[in-house]
Amino acid sequence: MASIFHLGLSKDFSLILDDADDYNVIIQVGENQNMKEFRAHSVILRARSSYFKGALSSNWVTKKDNMIIFSKPNLTPTIFDMILRYIYTGELDLTKQSGENILGLLVASDELLLEELFEHVQDYLIKKQNIWVRQNFVLVLNTVFRLVSCKNLQDYCFESICEDPLPFITSKSFLSLDKDSLFNLLESDNLQIEEVKVWDYLIKWGIEQTSAGLGSSSNSDRTNWDNDNYDSLKQILNQFIPLIRFVGISHKDLFNKVYPYKAIIPSHIFKEIEEFYYNSISPSLPIRIRKIKSNIINLELVNPIIENWIVKKNSKNPRTGNDLLYRFKPIYRSIRDGISDYSFRNKCNGRVASLVLVKVENTSKIFGGYSSIGFSSLGYNFNNVHSLKFYDSSDNFIFSFEDSEDTQNMKISRVVNKSRAILDCYSGFNFGQGSLVMDNEKLFVNYNACQNYENNLNIEAATYTIKEIETFIEDR
User: Fold this and answer.
1) d(CA 40, CA 337)
2) pLDDT at site 303
3) 212 and 314 part of one domain
4) Comparing 362 with 2, which gets the higher pLDDT?
5) Do both 306 and 433 map to the same domain?
């Protein structure tokens, strides 16, 4: 087996780079006051980079006294120094470099066809500079969006933004986002934000881009705009408006925030909006998928299994066409709000479709329930322990999973006595007077003498200690 002596080789080539007197290439890097000359050897540059192999033998270079003069004004001396040291020694230390320099190194290594270096720097940005990347999404995306080789970093940026887009779209830098990056973002079905906020900040972005100066203080009042102002904004936003999921915007927000900009919305899209709200005709675009971020259950169990239960589909069959994709917003987490009937009822208040997930002690089972009318606080009087009232729903169900990853052995029990779907009493929640009940830190399952729900959970009446509980409401 051959012996490898890379360490000594790297050291010797470092000496050639720093102290050589037989160089035949002068590379002028940077511009004006930030220009620096680097000395190098054409044979090494050609051997290490196919870019230099072609460039040094082309008309791009000039020769003076048998010396090759090559110019790279688009690179900075700091970045090229790292590149040249990598070419000669195979070494690279990014620990003391700024995020801007590392990003510049990524672009330069792509241009110079240094594939190994490019892959390393891209990976470094994602894994070691992820905080800086998140703080500078616009700079990163505007820099790398057109680099075909940079898909990993692009995907990382878009996926990270989609998970928590509000800090990004509300930042000042958002208004300078490149239009291609914005299109890619709005095209995503996984943007985890209220659609009306997407619309609000698209309008702000569009105003910032107009040549008519609509973003200036003198033109900030929309009531002073004329037809030319609206036409200018319409031209800017023409390719983006079809990406807005208008059916995810409430009637109130549609009236207050969308209708005032009716002049910039294509007539066929506006007609589609009205047909959905007034005639229930499905739109061409579904609403975005709002994922549940849960500490209790794997997201795959919510989408599509629980969601299909809600729309009363077979949980084994995927959605098709323009089926409504339910969106959930967390309103109660025991790790933040505590475990008690009072804290649950205080947070989970009102007649709004809701989902509860419960993790219990001493078993891997996950329990939960869905109520189209909410769980509690529907009029219960805390001062009167005898204040009991049933509410009806034909859509309610309770369920169990064997563990947080179970997608095969889950059980569902639907309400059979819709007039007693939810009992509003002193407990946190009470499905059907005993089918699934939260009583402070206790969870009672299948204490259902009244048989208001199916008995499909395949367990006898049992009492568990609640370890963690989360509640979500549908946010359409």
Assistant:
1) 64
2) 63
3) no
4) 362
5) yes
Rg, Å, the chain Cα set: 31
Q: Which of 246, 279, 312 is the last residue of a domain?
A: 279
Same domain? For 275 and 303 the reply is no
The whole-number pLDDT of residue 322 equals 36
Whole-angstrom Cα distance, residue 426 to residue 440?
A: 10
Query: What's the pLDDT score for residue 314?
Result: 47
Residues 152 and 20 in one domain: yes
- Tell me, what's the pLDDT at 180? 94
* Reported confidence tier of residue 181, pLDDT bands at 50, 70, 90: very high
CA distance linking residue 182 with residue 237, whole number of Å? 11
Q: Is the domain of 42 the same as that of 148?
A: yes
Assign 51 to helix, strand or coil.
helix
Query: Which of 61, 60, 19, 58 has the alpha carbon at shortest distance from 40?
Result: 19
The CA-based diameter of the chain, rounded to the nearest angstrom, is 103
**Residue 370 and residue 468: Cα distance in Å, rounded?**
17
Instruction: Establish if 352 belongs to a structural domain.
Output: yes
304 preceded by cis ω (within 30°)? yes
Q: What pLDDT, on the 0 to 100 scale, is given for residue 93?
A: 93
Mean of pLDDT over the chain: 85
- Report which residue type is found at 245: R
Instruction: State which residues form the domain around 105.
Output: 6-157
pLDDT bracket for residue 325 (50, 70, 90):
very low
Compute the distance between CA of residue 196 and CA of residue 472 in angstroms, rounded to an integer.
20
Domain total of the chain: 3
Q: Is residue 377 within 8 Å of 422, Cβ to Cβ? A: no
